[in-house]
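Quick one: structure tokens for this chain, please?
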Amino acid sequence: MSRDKHTLLKAAHRTSPYNHEKGMLGAFEYWLSSKNAECVKAVDSSTTTGRMLGVVVWFKQLPAAASEVPPPGVDKDEDEDEAEADEKIKTEESREEEKKPTDPLAQLEALTTSHLTSYQARIQPAGTKALVIGTLAVDPSAQNRGVGSLLIKHGTEIADREGALCWVHSSDDEGAVKVYAKAGFVLDDVLVVRLDEWARKAGIEGRFGDYRFRYMVRWPRSKPK
């Protein structure tokens, strides 16, 4: 990610520069603590140390069991329900207004997160079986050797057995896009962010250009019988 334009912009923040290494360490701590996440690594078996060549984090998201669904509430008067719903909406809107960040790069983060959340709600409605790639990284010295494809295959084989879709929120990396496409992923949506405009708002010098967050999806090639 040393050449990733979005990461470079965040690292150029005037008061709170983003530290990618620290950020990824925190992310892996979270992923490893999640019961739905599976961290898979590829190692070089030809070395005595088993040098790590790449890693992928797959999130297995399966529908909740019936016992996990909360029981329905007691029926109330329709007018009372509408009044409570209106009050809840007003309260939530008020809270959202209070939480809106003033820092331009924090606003950019909120925008991309909101877009990701909306995409997930569309592609993966309640009850949908899905495997989601949280991150995929390959050592530069091991690239173009099939490592990334092997790590992706681990999840897609599970998805095909389970009849689950796969999707990924990819960075603006043509190499990664080609690897996902080779594994059967197709481009489904794109969020284009004009980084120079956000840099100007944040008082950051430099040219960062446009950045494309790509959403790619892969449908199962076989379904469970």
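Helices lie at 5-11, 20-33, 78-99, 104-123, 147-162, 174-182, 195-201.
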